[in-house]
Write a structure and sequence with these properties.
2 domains, alpha/beta, 8-stranded parallel sheet, ornithine cyclodeaminase, domain 1, 7-stranded mixed sheet, globular, 17 strands
């Protein structure tokens, strides 16, 4: 049996994305995530393990079914921008449950942005109004382009209203997307301006604090909120009054009660889990006037989905290199022989 692990570095992941095409990868990953959530009961689940300090957080996100185990290591350090370091960095592993042998070790900073945007689009398909045309993007950092491209290619959204406290972040976003001529991005002077008349609002800010990025006075009936940035304990973006007026969907209730927007609410606050919404669409939006929220914190099942997907693509296209991180020896009871 092969003890070597397929290693995918940043350049390997970029190569895979170019082979698949940025237009296709969001739809593919969205479908993988949907498929796995529909097999929810097949997975052994837990909330992620969190080690945090005031300035940031490091998380370990494990999950498995009978075939494979995966985990992701990911951080969130908003002040890293002051040191010219990424605020989010991640890597992941996929292993065989039968033997415990690691199959894949690879980059997940880029993959996390892709799977987050793909999950966002999946929920918007289920919750947003079908004639949605305009999306506000509040927070124009590293994940914003991925969100915009996913909503453009999968849902056909062309008009995006941008706001960030750092206008250079918004300018960066427009520059990065300048070749996509059918995408129209407008920089707004405030959150209020961006939210007004927007069908979908994505909030994806970085500061680790309880904030009210959007309050109930900005709310318009029928809007869908893709609340991505409130993703750890002590970090929120929406006011409690918006939550009270909305239908709220989460990935994994046990985790989101601690880390999501609903950490502001008591344990009786009603929510719907994604796996239940997929099995009964009537649990979501019931009228054009309903306000819906995807309280997105990121769940390990989504990492499993994209790791499994990328592993298959890499094998099919002979991408990556095999590395030795598991010792191979003649007698499985004699590890010491390797060092004498």
């Amino acid at each position: 049996m092969n003890n070597k692990v397929l290693f995918l570095d940043v350049q390997n992941i970029i190569k895979i994305i170019k082979i698949i095409g940025i237009k296709n990868i969001f739809e593919d990953v969205k479908n993988e995530i949907k498929k796995d959530y529909l097999h929810w009961d097949d997975f052994q689940k837990s909330s992620r393990t969190v080690n945090d300090i005031k300035e940031g957080v490091i998380e370990l996100m494990p999950i498995s079914n009978n075939e494979k185990y995966s985990f992701k290591y990911v951080n969130g350090h908003p002040k890293n921008i002051n040191y010219n370091l990424p605020t989010i960095m991640a890597f992941g592993m996929l292993s065989s449950m039968e033997t415990g042998i690691p199959l894949l070790l690879g980059e997940m900073t880029i993959l996390t942005a892709i799977r987050t945007a793909s999950t966002s689009v999946l929920l918007a398909e289920l919750l947003a109004r079908k004639n949605s045309k305009t999306m506000a993007v509040i927070g124009n950092g590293c994940q914003s382009e991925f969100q915009i491209l996913a909503f453009h290619y999968v849902l056909g959204i062309n008009n995006f209203k941008l706001y960030d406290i750092d206008i250079n972040a918004s300018r960066k976003l427009i520059k990065n997307l300048s070749k996509y001529t059918d995408i129209i991005c407008t920089i707004c002077s405030s959150t209020e301006e961006a939210v007004k008349n927007s069908d979908i609002i994505t909030t994806i800010t970085a500061d680790k604090k309880n904030s009210i990025i959007i309050n109930e006075l900005m709310l318009e009936l029928g809007q869908h909120f893709n609340a991505v940035g409130g993703d750890c304990h002590g970090k929120t973006e929406l006011s409690k009054k918006i939550l009270d007026k909305s239908i709220v969907v989460v990935e994994y209730e046990k985790q989101t009660r601690i880390e999501g927007e609903i950490q502001q609410m008591d344990s009786t606050f009603p929510i719907i889990e994604l796996k239940d919404l997929l099995n009964n669409h009537l649990l979501g939006r019931k009228s054009e006037q309903d306000v819906t929220i995807f309280d997105s914190v990121g769940f390990a099942l989504e990492d499993y989905s994209i790791l499994n997907y990328i592993y298959k693509i890499a094998i099919e296209n002979n991408i990556g290199e095999y590395i030795d991180i598991i010792p191979k020896f003649n007698d499985p009871k004699n590890l010491f022989e390797l060092i004498i």
